[in-house]
Structures
1.
Amino acid sequence: MAALDSSTDVVIIGGGIIGCATAYHLARRGVAVTLVEKGPIGYEQSTRNWGWVHQQVRYPHLIPLAVESVRMWDSLAGDLEADVGWIQGGNLTLGFAAADLAEFERWGETARRAGLETTVLARNQVVDMLPGMAGMQGSWTGALHLPTDGQADPDLVTAAFARAAERHGAHILNDCAATAVDTTGGAVSGVLTERGPIRASQVIVAAGAWSGRLARPLGVRFPQRSVRSTVVRTEPVDPVTAVTGWGDGFTFRQDRAGRFVLAGGEAAIYDVDLGLFRDMRWFLPLAWRNRRWLRMRVGRSLLGDVAASLPGLSARREFWERRRKIDPPADAKGARQTLARFHQAFPGLAGAGMESAWAGNIDSTPDQAPVLGPAASGPTGLFLATGFSGHGFALGPAAARLVADLVLGDEPPVDPHPFRHARFAERDVPVVVVHRR
Ligand SMILES: Cc1cc2nc3c(=O)[nH]c(=O)nc-3n(C[C@H](O)[C@H](O)[C@H](O)COP(=O)(O)OP(=O)(O)OC[C@H]3O[C@@H](n4cnc5c(N)ncnc54)[C@H](O)[C@@H]3O)c2cc1C
């Protein structure tokens, strides 16, 4: 087990793609960085995602960061000296009615203003793009195509950032939960961990779904919820397509081993916990707008939270130990439905069975945008890099670069204003409909 540093310049809490990429960007610029991760690197969202690197996000305020990120993805393997599974095969979102195609045209206009080329394709053009899939059935009428979108391998990327950060001198500690951020006289003075304290004048909270919990004791609040989502992987088949796609109730990409990674047939699950009551006024409008595919579930999350809030119980003392490796159950029925929809849409692949299914908790904010930069309240020296709302794999490279720039007081590549923590206090937070067909 690696030794704990007693002091450093910057401590990063969380070893997902965001924490590891930020460690990389800081370390390569000569900053002394220690990253603490409560479990294995990348174990929560960063290795459980679909692997989409998409700029085709519904929210215009995310597009510039997404564009910058894709620019970085293009040279990432070289920069990190590691295979990241990057394939720039484009993305298709199928439309089923004239209203969908009109919406694609409108989005295309917004995207073009941000320098992004998109095209609305007719049905026959889509069939041409999916070789061997000419028999593809369904009621869809066309698609939005974004040729510069891509995909990468979630099993490789976060680890590649971590190793590259280490090569530049960062210290990365697994199985070492941060229990609190320490302060002195209104400024950050370090982090308390399971293995002892680390002194530092700057701390970045990149703890995914757990960021709000770490920030709250410092008087730093922001609404954050998690939605449980299931992913299916098929057995390998011959290469069909490099395009990632959003079809009729399911999404797909084919990985380099020939396996299709699918999602979407199941309802997304809100596991009810104490945080839901705290953040209700932020998330109720969002939940109402997305009620068609959201389900509330009361169970272990709420019980665990209640037990951990009672003084003297082991559930409170062992809070992080009990949450070292979060492996939520996949929705087995939903996974079967997703696979069935895939087979229905692609009859030629009906023989591809399910190789595996897993679930992950997607942390999100009410406006589906991350919180990046200094905390607007609380101690000086505290930075937030969290709340990626289902886009953190795609946005990771540029978002981490932006956070590193803000920590160092440099000009970031993209305007950080939409991501400021203060937007919640200012009530400058649009209610958005989560992209789902
Ligand atoms: C099913 C699913 C599909 C997705 N699909 C896509 C996609 O196709 N494209 C896309 O762009 N995004 C996608 N996402 C979202 C994307 O995976 C996340 O936005 C991104 O991984 C967030 O990275 P992160 O580093 O902020 O969080 P995480 O990966 O969750 O990492 C946070 C880390 O902090 C650690 N941690 C927490 N508390 C502590 C503590 N107290 N001490 C130390 N460590 C701590 C955790 O153990 C965890 O490893 C998907 C997510 C899921 C779950």
Note: The chain has a mean pLDDT of 90.
2.
Amino acid sequence: MARVRSVYRCTECGADHAKWSGKCDSCGAWNTLNEEPVAAAPATKRAREQARTHPAATAVRLDAVTGSESMRWRTGLDEFDFVLGGGIVPGAMVLVGGEPGIGKSTLLLQVAARLEAAGQRTMYVSGEESPLQVKLRAERLGEQAGGVSLVTETLLETILATAAAPDESDPRALAVLVIDSIQTVHTDTLEGAPGNVGQVRECAARLMRFAKERGVTVFVIGHVTKGGGIAGPKTLEHIVDTVLYFEGEGSLDHRILRATKNRFGSVDEIGVFRMAASGLLPVDNPSALFLGDREDIASGSAVCALMEGTRPVLVEVQALAARAGFGTPQRVANGIDGRRLALLLAVLDKRGGFSCADLDVFCNIVGGMRVQEPAVDLAIAAAIASSVTDRALPANAVFLGELGLGGEVRAVTQVERRLAEAAKLGMTDAYLSERAVPRRIPPGMRVHGVKTLADVLMQTIGPRKQ
Ligand SMILES: Nc1ncnc2c1ncn2[C@@H]1O[C@H](COP(=O)(O)OP(=O)(O)OP(=O)(O)O)[C@@H](O)[C@H]1O
Ligand SMILES: [Mg+2]
């Protein structure tokens, strides 16, 4: 009888352990070992013989490989094509992750419908919804989704057999397979419930093999876990060619699609969509969306131009410094790292002369953007100082700079592109490191080269009232 062994696999780093333990020996993470049954290896003498006599694989010279970059398929959903690096690569496997209800199924149904309309044969496998639910969504979207074949199945072997089988009524070879979602699919070669780490990884690996062998592009939807990873194991992200995260605030109707890994294009590109009754609509000018309505500019608001991949995006930073009620003052950061906020408050106190020791400080990036670029430092510090003094910053000014611990304003990269975007959105003044002042300045823009945070504050809100 075949013996089913099990291993304890770390959901963080994927390392296997023979015995359970509270801590992973490999990456040091706690409570991440999961028991996973492993299919018994072929143990008979004949199987061992067969393993020894495997035929050699055929090597191909790279110049003999056919196909070119121009073979990418465009969906016509421009933001989606842009994030992928210019369209869909045949035979690629793309993981689309996101929180529940963010719009993953909507996006991929729209993509499938567009590709079908462009002449590609597509198959949508739903393990979560009934055919009627998917049809109702397609009707709501108003896309020509009639030609998309729908399969409601969760067993991987059946899904692969269905995808591989020729369609009698349709002579075209399958071009795109959508799996909604990887957590519902399971294989009968492994024990364990669908969604467990072993199942997810094995199913993803088999789908990847299918994609490469047949040149079918496979889109896989993955639920984001509490920790923010897709389906727990980072290894799933290692397997696939491209990882897209679909993000957004539940209460706002815009969504951001971000590539965090891309074997066929650059990463950190973003695509911005708006969720409407008729589905996801690309947003042509994200800066206008994030800047929103800035007509009555109060104190505590500053604008920064970020680089999201190759694209500059303007965002508004809002800060509110209010007298703390009792106890330790609060620091609340939305869209930026809380530790970064603490550091900037310390720099502001020590180098800018604006102490917030007895104030609650709230800092928010408008529009639900999450900012990691240090170029936003100067805008955050300026917004806080503006709120502390209750004096508004110049209305159409953009602040670009990383702050050093000495209060010095550091240069940011790609200044010309940031300034061009700022000018396009009607900004007239820019504060940045004097060493970063570019040679070409957009017409109508005044660039103020500064050395330190104190210089910026003196030029914009004046000295602090004591
Ligand atoms: N009539 C409508 N008008 C506007 N937006 C809608 C409408 N119906 C649904 N939505 C939006 O679509 C979202 C659900 O989309 P979808 O089912 O594609 O999400 P999902 O990420 O696949 O969710 P799950 O994780 O549950 O599978 C809702 O949160 C809502 O924002
Ligand atoms: Mg869904």
Note: Residues 5-52 form one domain.
3.
Amino acid sequence: MPTETAYRARWVFPTASEPLADATIIVTDGLLTDVTTHDIPEAEDLGSVAILPGLVNAHVHLEFSGLDRPIEPSLPFTDWIRAVIRSRQSEESREASLAKGIEEVIQTHTTAVGEIATSPLSAHLLDKSNISGVVFQEMIGISKEIAREKIGLVSDMLTTYQPNRADLKIGLSPHAPYSVHPDLLREIIRQSRAHQSPLAMHLAENRAERELIGTCAGEFRSFLEVMNLWPGDVWAEMRTINDYLRMLAEADSALIIHGNDLRSDEIDYLATQPKLSVVYCPRTHAYFQHPPHPLPQLLEAGINVALGTDGRSSNPDLNLWREVLHIRKTFPQIPPPEILKLATTNGTRALELPSDGLTIDQPARWSSVPLASQSSETDPWRLLFG
Ligand SMILES: [Zn+2]
């Protein structure tokens, strides 16, 4: 006997059609089988909410979920990194933080994540939950010696644990240009292709990163020297952000995390690479007081942009819907349906999930967000974004 469940909401926003008022979704054995405005008496009435395609948080570090507030100071950026390194946790407290993060993701109606993992626990705990997405195993190693050591581990990082689900995958995260030796990055990309595994790399995050790879100077050089990690000039073949983008384009697929400092020639290149997505983390971007994000230019160029909260180390919570509302305020010129896509279907594409949320005959992945119950607003988009 198939199991059928039905949920009614004030508005339903199917993935690829116009919003429907007072509508019901019907889910049969996990598949979306109908979205209807007919009365279904046995449907569970969710009240004044909008049912949306599942919210996707394409960039998060769940291990920081035990924090009550972001790590300080936010500036200079390298001081923040130093504070993050100092806050390293024991394996026991990491497990509690990950569990708390997963709970917060569920409570805030997020259905999929792009998790950056520094421990095998992330994959185990996410596999036990019903959250979809990709667990990107983080790789760091800027010195030649450490990079050589890590190169031997790349394949194992991808194959040691394989979830038994089509909607949860293992990928790799070469951390950032200032923390990953180009030789290690090359091997990660080779393995990404060999195993058809996705990558996520923090890139074009700020001007100091561009200064480091271009001229071996600036804030990151001092940081690496003080940490006794200065590798010498290892960026000889990687002088520009475009060099990194070209390399990442060789991977099976890759997320460019942040892209705060992407410039027009880099945006032009990204527009030619459909396997590369950019993940914008709006409130984390604001926390570090970066210049305005090039989101409008990225969208104009047709680049797939998804959203992330980043970790609680730079954001007060993991509520992806708050990122959406932040964008609505920061970029009022972006049409509401486009903003909703950033949080839903663009994330689905970035993480290559097997379902785009609310499409008939696909696995149902849906979220609900509250609508102002007293409001008589009849335009669903105005009602959705308050
Ligand atoms: Zn991050």
Note: The pocket of zinc ion is lined by residues 59, 61, 116, 202, 257, 310 (CB under 6 Å).
